[in-house]
């Protein structure tokens, strides 16, 4: 059977089953590699029980096979989405499975000013609050004059 399974992205090996954070709109390439095994393993990507790709590249000289999952544009629904890499070279044994979740930065969906429901007057104090929602991590709000 295959001995090792490793998932990596453009930044290197994935640790603790979650990618480093990617910006909304960025592209992401995940590579799942299997080493050893005779014959070399078939490698496939799954999400929620559905096959995404089972296109496997074989490198016999290095005793390795791999499959690449490319997401051209990350969207909000990819946040913490779990993708599974399955590695198998025999129907007699269950596949080796490695799961990876996608971490993301999300820009704010909305910024709103509160407290402007009356006319402003010179020399009179008015409190205005800026509320922001939909960002991850929470947005840093600053005021400029």
From TrEMBL:
Q: What Pfam families has UniProt attached to this entry?
A: Ig_3
Query: Which residues belong to any copy of the Ig-like domain?
Result: 2-101, 108-145
PROSITE patterns tied to this protein: IG_LIKE (PS50835)
- Gene3D superfamilies, from UniProt? Immunoglobulins (2.60.40.10)
By its UniProt entry, which InterPro entries does this protein fall under?
Ig-like_dom (IPR007110), Ig-like_dom_sf (IPR036179), Ig-like_fold (IPR013783)
* Protein name from the UniProt record: Nephrin-like
The species this protein belongs to is Nicrophorus vespilloides
